[in-house]
Specification:
This protein is mostly beta strands and 136 residues long. The chain has a single domain, classed as Sandwich (Jelly Rolls). The chain contains no helices and 10 strands. It binds manganese (II) ion. The site of manganese (II) ion (MN) has 5 residues, from strand 9.
Amino acid sequence: MDKFAKVDPAQAKPVPEALHKLFNDPSKVKVQPLPCEIPDVGSKAVHFEAGARTMPHRHAKGQHIIVTDGVGVVADEEHVHVVRPGDVISSPPGGWHWHGATPTTAMSHVTIEDPGLDLDVERGNWDEAYTPDLGR
Ligand code: MN
C-alpha cells in the first residue's frame, strides 16, 4: 500500500541534535520527516527561515531536492542557483553543495537521500556568495 503525506510546516519539528552541525542556524530550520518506502532511502521536508542554510556538505550517494515553497538557493562548485517551487535539483554521489533560504526569503524543500552525509569539506563559495541581494 502506498503512503501519503503532505508538506506542512505545522507538522515540522526542531532540527535533531545530530543534525545541528549541518545548519548555520538550526533555530531557524524545521524538519518534517516524510514516509519513504524505498529501501535504504530517506525523505524529509525542510523549512528554512530567511537567512538559514546548510553548511557545505557532500552526500555519499547523492541527493534529490524538490523545492515546494518560497525562494531559496542551491549552490554547487560552480554557481549559486536561485530556486523556486517546482524546481528539482539532483546532486550526484559525492557532489559538493549547500542549500537553504535566501537572506530575505524563506524556502521549503523536500529531500530524498541515503542518510550518509559528509560535513568535513571545503567552504568553497559559502561565505562570499551569500549576499543580501540574492534572489531579488
Ligand atoms: Mn544536501
